[in-house]
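Protocol step 4 of 6: record predicted structures for both targets in the notebook before any analysis. Target 1:
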Amino acid sequence: MLIGIWRGAGVYQSDEGQGWNELRKMIRHEDGKFEVSYLLVYHGDKQYEVTFDTGKWSYENGKYAEVDGDNQKSIYKVYSVKKDWFEYNYIQRGDNVTIQETETVKL
């Protein structure tokens, strides 16, 4: 269900009160690999950053996980998975980071 090209957005807050908006393009393949590109726009600094990553993804028992190119694992609590909608929360950052994605292209 999550295989395809998705676009997403999230808003993050740091412990110091600064934060950033994140826009992403996520490509999930049937073999469990992913490629993602991010545009990060930092609040108050008028700075932005573009990053790319690859890795492996999995989804089971209400948890979505990614292992990136540096072998760092991120685990997410899934709120909603539909045909063209995916909403989840980054567990390691608490309940204040919800990410929403919509499918743009089926692979």
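Target 2:
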Amino acid sequence: MSDEITIVAGLKASLGAFVVERANLTKMATLATSPPARSLNVQTIGTGVAGNALAIATGVNITGGCGWFKNTMSTNTGNYVDVGVQVAGTFYPVARLRPGEATTFRAATLALYARAASGNVSLEHDIMTP
């Protein structure tokens, strides 16, 4: 089989005369194994300086894997979570999710980390090995 994964992304913003509209882009990807290797988890993320390693299921090679990430906190908490990498004990964020926000991307590393801004945050991830 092929094209078992569908990723859709778009962006719209407007304020007065400022208008940005990026049409939805649909990208298809193929799952390499049947059944596919998958890591589905809701994890409590703290505020540690070095970030918290994401708990990825055994057997899931997330390098090149399609991932979906969501800050499951209520929108009234105001607490965001950053997702990124750690190098020599230093956390480098690459994506920020405000409460209720989600994003998807293809992972380029085996070790993803996350760090909450203030107080614990629940981060859901769903990663599939393509």
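Step 5 preliminary note on target 2. The two ends are 12 Å apart (CA to CA). The first strand starts at residue 5 and ends at 15.
Proceed to step 6 after PI sign-off.
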